[in-house]
Amino acid sequence: MKPVKSCHPKSQSGFTLIELMMITAIIGILASIATVSYQKKIRQTQLITIYQESNQYRTPYQILVDEGAGVTGFSPSGLNMPAQTKYCQFSVTAPALNGITTNAVKCSIQNLPYLQEQSLSLDRAIDGTWQCRASFDIPEAYLPQACQ
């Protein structure tokens, strides 16, 4: 008996080396874009955390102002607040009698290598309104909306 010949030509399945290299390149590009976006989101989240921690000082600060506390009451311990958190070393300035109290609450940023020797401050106006202010070297893309 003779072997039966197939009517269908041999078909190959799979990918060529060029196709595999292109897929690998595309995956690499997408991974690098995702990594950069992830790092940006992490930094934004860290600065939002710093802003929120600083914001917690506003109410105790205002209570001391309303009670007419002296200069000695304006410190983290005088406000019954922590002097240090994971990302901040806090300092508090007594209110100015006329005008804006610069650095009423100041967070000196720590434990973030990309923000060495930087700070985020809350300034208080005489009418009780607050303004967030960041160091010049902190990229605006990382700052919370209230600090831009």
What are its keywords?
148 residues, alpha+beta, Glycoprotein, Type 4 Pilin, four-stranded antiparallel beta sheet
Describe this structure as you would to a colleague:
It is built from 2 helices and 4 strands; from the N terminus they run H-H-E-E-E-E. A 4-stranded antiparallel beta sheet has the order 1-2-3-4, covered by helices on one side. By secondary structure, it is α+β, with helices and mostly antiparallel strands. The longest helix is centred in the first third of the chain and has 39 residues. Strand 3 and strand 4 form a beta hairpin. It has a single domain, classed as Glycoprotein, Type 4 Pilin (2-Layer Sandwich). 33% of the residues lie in helices and 17% in strands.
Please give the structural blueprint.
Blueprint: H1 17-55, H2 58-67, E1 88-92, E2 101-109, E3 119-124, E4 130-134
Antiparallel strand pairs: 1-2, 2-3, 3-4
Helix content range of the residues, please?
25-40%
Beta-strand residue fraction: 15-25%
Q: What's the CATH first level?
A: Alpha Beta
- CATH architecture descriptor name: 2-Layer Sandwich
Give a quick account of the main beta sheet: strands, pairing sense, barrel closure.
Answer: 4 strands, antiparallel
User: What would you report as the Rg, rounded to the nearest angstrom?
Assistant: 29 Å
Largest sheet, order of strands side by side?
A: 1-2-3-4
The number of helical segments is 2
What string gives the helices and strands in order?
HHEEEE
- Average the pLDDT over all residues and give the rounded result: 88
CATH T-level fold name: Glycoprotein, Type 4 Pilin
Low-confidence stretches: none
Domains (count): 1
